[in-house]
Design a protein that fits this description.
The complex is a heterodimer of chains A (about 120) and B (about 900).
Chain A: E1 6-7, H1 13-22, E2 26-27, H2 28-38, E3 43-44, H3 47-59, E4 63-69, E5 75-81, H4 83-107
Parallel strand pairs in A: 1-3
Antiparallel strand pairs in A: 2-5, 4-5
Chain B: H1 2-15, H2 17-41, H3 46-57, H4 60-71, H5 73-96, H6 98-126, E1 135-142, E2 147-151, E3 153-154, H7 155-164, E4 168-183, E5 191-197, H8 200-205, E6 211-212, E7 227-230, H9 232-239, E8 249-252, E9 255-262, E10 275-278, E11 292-299, H10 305-315, E12 330-336, H11 337-340, H12 350-380, H13 382-390, H14 395-435, H15 450-477, H16 482-485, H17 497-525, E13 539-546, H18 554-581, E14 585-591, E15 602-607, E16 622-628, H19 632-635, E17 640-643, E18 657-661, H20 662-669, E19 678-681, E20 693-699, H21 703-706, E21 716-720, E22 727-732, H22 736-750, E23 754-761, H23 762-767, H24 770-807, H25 809-817, H26 822-858, H27 870-896, H28 900-905
Parallel strand pairs in B: 5-10, 7-9, 16-21, 18-20
Antiparallel strand pairs in B: 1-2, 1-11, 1-12, 3-11, 4-5, 4-8, 4-11, 6-9, 7-10, 8-9, 13-22, 13-23, 14-22, 15-16, 15-19, 17-20, 18-21, 19-20
Helix pairs in contact in B: 2-3, 5-14, 6-12, 6-14, 6-15, 6-24, 12-15, 12-24, 14-15, 17-24, 17-26, 17-27, 18-22, 24-26, 24-27, 26-27
Classes of the chains: A alpha+beta (about 120), B alpha+beta (about 900).
Chain lengths: ~120, ~900
Amino acid sequence: MTPSKSDVLLGTLDLIVLKLLECGPNHGWGLAEQLEVVTDGVFAVNQGSLYPALQRLKQKGYIRAKWGVTENGRRARYYQLTEGGGGYLKEQLAKWATTSGAVNRVINLKPARAEGS
Amino acid sequence: MQFFRGLLERLRILFRRNRFESDLDDELRFHLDELTRRNVKRGMPAEEAAIAARRSLGRDDSTKADVRRQTGVNAILNWLDAWGLDFKLGFRMLVKYPGLTLAGGLAMAVGIAIGLGFTSGLDALLYRPPLLQDVVTVRVWNLTRGVREGYGAPLRDFVRWRDELQSVQDLSAFIQFEQHDLVTDDGRGDPVNSAQITPSAFHLFRTPPLMGRLLVEEDALAGARPVALISHTVWRTRFGSDPEIVGRDVRLGGTVHTIVGVMPEGFAYPVNDRLWTPLRADPLSFEGDGPWVEIFGRLTPGTSVERARAELSAVGLLEHTSGVNTDEVLVPSLVDYATRHTNVEDTPPSLMHVVQLFCALLLLVPCANVAILFYARTARRQSEIAVRSALGASRRRIIMQLFIEALVLALVAAVAAFVLARISLGQLDAFLASRGDAEFPAWVRFGVSPPAVWYLLGLVVFAAAVVGVVPAIQATGRSVHSGLRNEGGSGGLQLGKLWTVLIVTQVAVTVAVLPLAAGVVWSTGRSGLADHGLATDDVLTARLVMGYDPPANPEARADYQGQYRARLQTLSNELKRRLEAEPDVLSVTYAGDPPGGIPGNWQRFEAEGGLLPLESATGSGWKFYDFVDLNFFDFFDLRLLAGRPFGPDDKAPESTAVIVDRAFVRDVLGEGNAVGRRIRAIRPADQEPAPWLEIVGVVEDFPLHEITLVAEASGTVYGAVQDISPGIAVRVRSVPAAFSNRLREIAAAVDPNLGLADVKTLNEAYQSRLDRVMGRMFAWSIAVATLSLLFLSIAGIYALTSFAVTQRRREIGIRAALGAHPHRLLGSIFSRAAMHLGLGVALGIVASVPIVSYWRKIDFGIVLGVPDTPGFLVAVAVLVMAVGIAGSVGPARRGLRVEPTEALKAE
């Protein structure tokens, strides 16, 4: 069964975009595609979520944008992580590690055997 | 930081919106194309691939809207739209309510102009030109007496400090000569402000000459040829911008100097100087400690003023400096050079804030008044506000709208205030520049300063907040929807007793100060001297000046002074003789001070066997003591009331004869015959008493002597001129102004060293007196303030009547329906306004009597020409009543036009 595509987890889009940009500058389409590839198509990001998120991060100064040319010779807007964005990403990653660790611990709980049964 | 970055980004998008939109389009198209391309790559036919891509991406419009929302630009645009509308409405309100605009605008403008003027004035005094940053000057403090001993020090100390001080570089010294006579080849001997200055000062000022060279150390050596450096102004006005000026000889004082250079335009350091000669900083060439010089220098880079002060006080002053009491402890210190010359070197920077705060508080007074008018207007618009509120406008939104309406009014007032302040400061600046006072720094220019403009904007917001927000909070506080119920009927708001009291007080204050203001303006406006009983249109006055270069040696100095006096006397006699021979000249007279100017020599007198003048009717008892020519009284048609005129014998040095005027007799001697009584000047207890003088005659008061800034001064003692009397007055047949050149020519022909300063007609001399100029400015401020008060009162009455009509709309309608005669209706509308007016006027009249009489007593240099007859007060009362009633005519007419059916329908 092919896994169906689903939107990224609520509230994690900023973290994902910043993490992807940590690998290097990329355009909106590139980011969307990269996400699909990395997650084996489990997660997909809609353009209606991606571009507002990029604008939001830009406004906060975490990323900057510059027009460039793709390998196919197309003009595209490339986004790049700023220094402030790098710091913010580190903070968010640490938070994510704590949160996901906690969630995993809950998930991995073994059901206790009922007493007397 | 993040906030500002976001704001910048927003602004960038806001101003480049088209670019932002097209970039977004491009970006989304690229995304779509790439997705289509991938679909094709995965085997879809092109058309299907495009449709699938489009479908999976969703609508572009909604993505774009989401991106735009993230930028926050839409919010800004909406906000700007709303503000734009509010501003438009604000301007409409200005036109719709002209009374409020005029009265409120004027009152606020006056308040704002005062704040702006004060701030700019203080800014000018605290200004430090770039060249004078880090420049300090020596101030000597007398620790024994706890007072400032003076600025500078004797030359001997300067020389020692120059050699020893490490923390101050380019230590320099100068002596200022007010109006040193510069005599050019054509015989013109006009005085110029000059400074004898150590050449090192030019190193400190870092300004190259326009032509020629600066003063150098060699110029100051003993035996060096006398040289002078001149300013651009002197070069232009006295030498016609002669390109060959360098090397030309001029007489300065009595000595020939060679001009070595011209300084560029605007250079007038050290204070307000136009000519510089080298100061020989060699104590050996002077007796004792040398002359007292002003000392200044630049702090060595990296040195704090505290460190420099500590170093100077450690080096200290030499003992036994001449001219000071050796028992006293004197400590030299360093203060800022620029602000020392405006006497604000000790002013803490916080003073500016205190002044600004004070002016803002002062602005509260007119603003509170305008706020009430605004409140009344808001009350009339209660139904409009209710409708807006019902349509969904929040309270904040309505308050913001009313604030912006007030802001528009405040902005208009600010523009008027700016113009007013600019004109007044410009006048002051032009006046000070024309005086060219040697001690008033040239770098101080009065005008509206850039920081003051920021303050102005602050005042505008403050005024708008007081005027707009407070009434808006009041008006929107209670249930605004009651306004809807009352639409067409009476408003839901009330004007309390407080408001009535305020209006009555305002009318009373207007009536009380109006006679005073009218008097001040009237007296100051009367410019002709003829109003003071002097027919003087044909009199020209001037001050004789002759170069004075005394040698340093005390004995030689005394000799020089004797010769100087004798020479000046001979020359002035010769000048008088030649002038009298001129066909155009009717008569010539001399006086100690040029007539028309402010008398300079003030003394306090006591009468033999009489009371000390401390108890005299006019207070401190300062009298003007002048030495006049024998024909002085005839020249000015001053009638001798008793005794005899001066005779030739009275010119003898041992003569004790004086003539006093009537004011002196009244104040010092009281009733009885003054002729034959003896008076003398009061000297401090530790000095020898002044000789007794005998009164030989009494003359009429010379009106110009009484009108001075020294409020208590009235009364003159005249002695007969003995030798030097630099003030000259010439009565001519022709136009006096036209004769001034001829007068200069004649003086130059008598002796090239004899110059004439301040050649003016008597009227000009009188008008350009500092007290007259200040008086005129003062009168203008009083006039504008009173006018704004009058407008405010009328606007208050208008608002009150208007409010009453709105409130009583239904009642008026019913009465009209029942057949009430319009006259009765009108009477009932007017009666309340008339009551307020009448009460205010009555209170004002009662208050005005002591105010006017107090004013007469203190008399700030302006003789009050206001008639204090009851008739004048009645005229003022009638005027205020009339304009007040006129103010309520508009609303009353509106009341009469109330249709009974309309008014009742609203119920």
